[in-house]
Specification:
Layout: H1 3-9, H2 14-22, H3 29-36, H4 44-54
Amino acid sequence: MRLKEARERANYTQESLVQEIQSYMECSLRHYQNIEYGKKIPTMPLGLLICKLCGVDPQEVDEWKFVRTTQ
C-alpha cells in the first residue's frame, strides 16, 4: 500500500497528519513529504507513528519495502 493511500483512507491531508505527528515528535511538512514521495526513510519511531495514525501495518508500506536487485 502506498503511504499516500493510507493517509487518505485515514482522512488526513499531509498538513493535518504532520500536525498530529507534531503532538508526539518533531516533523516538518517537507520531511513528511519526502517520506511519502519515497525520497527519505523515516526513523523507526516516526515510521511507526505514521503507521499507527494511518492504521496501516509498517510491513505493508510500499515505499519502505526492500527490493532485491540482481546483478
